[in-house]
Amino acid sequence: MKIHRHFALAGGALLLAVMLCGGCSLLRDTPPPPPQVPERWLTSPQAATPGYREFWSAFNEPDLMTLQARALRQNNSLKLSALSLKLYRIQADLSRLNLSPDAALSATAGTSRPLTTENGIDPAISRSAGASASLIWQPDIWGQYGASAEAAALDAQAGEADWRAARLTLLAAVAQAHWQTGLLNRVRTDNLHNLEVARETLHLAEVRHQAGATDMADVLLARQRVSEAQGTLSQTEQQLAAARTTLTQLTGDTPETHLPELQAVPDTPLPLPAAGLPVSLLARRPDVRAAELRVRSSVARADATRLSFYPAFSLTGSVGTASQTLTNYLSNPVGSLALSLSLPFIQFRTARLSNEAAGVNAQIAAVQFRQTLYAALQQVENALSDRTHLDEQAGWLRLQLTQAQESERLSQARWLAGATDIQPLLDAQTARQQTELSLMQNNLQRRSNAAALYVALGGDYTAE
């Protein structure tokens, strides 16, 4: 009867607490409204290439696809991001455990014997054994544990968005390093050709000097040009070695690994993803999505902090046995039920400072979200503008190269005819070589811009 009465009292107290806490869901805060986003881009986007979701295959570079797949398997930074995501998910599962009762089992067994004798008689040995099972439940009356579980779940979603952002950035970085290696291979080939041209020019200058058709100054200038060409070749080879090391680092390989390389950057039509509207970045960009989720997580965590200072109830029930002999192990069952109440709100200073700290963390997350969103908008604007200007520059550079080649041909003819010294020819050769290099760099920049725009728009990532 006593046990039943204790159960009734505990249940009545718990019911009273729940009734007093009616409407507690109204205590939860709502995340701040999203920042203002422009209605349209400043630079009008060009028509998208059909099937842009197959973006990387649109370049028609099998080696690039191979390198990207290798990087997705082996890149250490991406592995760390995946492990962080796994940890976030484990922490979310742990947080949900607070919503269910905790169970415990214990068993004891012992033997005791007095160390002194009484009247010359050895003392008797006593044995005891016992077992108990308990169940502890802290009802989430105010929603504290629910808020903590929600915050952990949002952190896990943000961790997944971080992983997607890292994956997208890695694919673009591998493409950039692959194309950079191709550019430097082509530049090295051109450097070898330019060195050969410089040596031929030096040979002509020496022949003309021996024939008395020119002075020694032309020979010295031609020799200087050979030295400059050799130095340029050495510098290019140094840059090529560094580019190869960068690529192996991205793919997770050792520096001595030989990876597929381009001998020149292809000059082919480039895919163009659909820009959409600026507001779509909230869903398309994984880093923006992660920042938004962390705002919601910080608000939920601030709720949990504030609610942790509300009165808390704990209901404990246990069943146990105790016996002096193992044979009567289950003969003396004992049951108990207890209801406890804690009042943490009396820690006024701790509560105030904890709530202030949680509020500041929520404000920090909101500012970081706006910062991430506006940076994403700027990246898209820059990529759209750069694409237009790079296309225009490509046309002018092609025209400039044609003019530089004609100027070099005329300068060589005038020098061989004795109308000028060698300096105009050397200047014309330099102008032609520089224009060729600028055109190759423009080709690389246009490909890099296509990849940058793809990443800035969130790639193939779509929020569920």
From TrEMBL:
Main location: membrane
One Pfam family matching this protein: OEP
Protein keywords: Coiled coil, Lipoprotein, Membrane, Palmitate, Transmembrane, Transmembrane beta strand
Domain of life where this protein originates: Bacteria
GO molecular function, one term: efflux transmembrane transporter activity
GO cellular component: cell outer membrane
Record's subcellular location: Cell outer membrane
Membrane-protein topology: Lipid-anchor
TM stretches of this protein: none
Coiled coil: 226-253
InterPro entries tied to this protein: MdtP/NodT-like, OMP_efflux
Family: Belongs to the outer membrane factor (OMF) (TC 1.B.17) family.
PANTHER family in the record: CATION EFFLUX SYSTEM PROTEIN CUSC, OUTER MEMBRANE CATION EFFLUX PROTEIN
Protein name: Efflux transporter outer membrane subunit
Provenance organism: Erwinia psidii
Upper lineage: Bacteria, Pseudomonadati, Pseudomonadota, Gammaproteobacteria, Enterobacterales
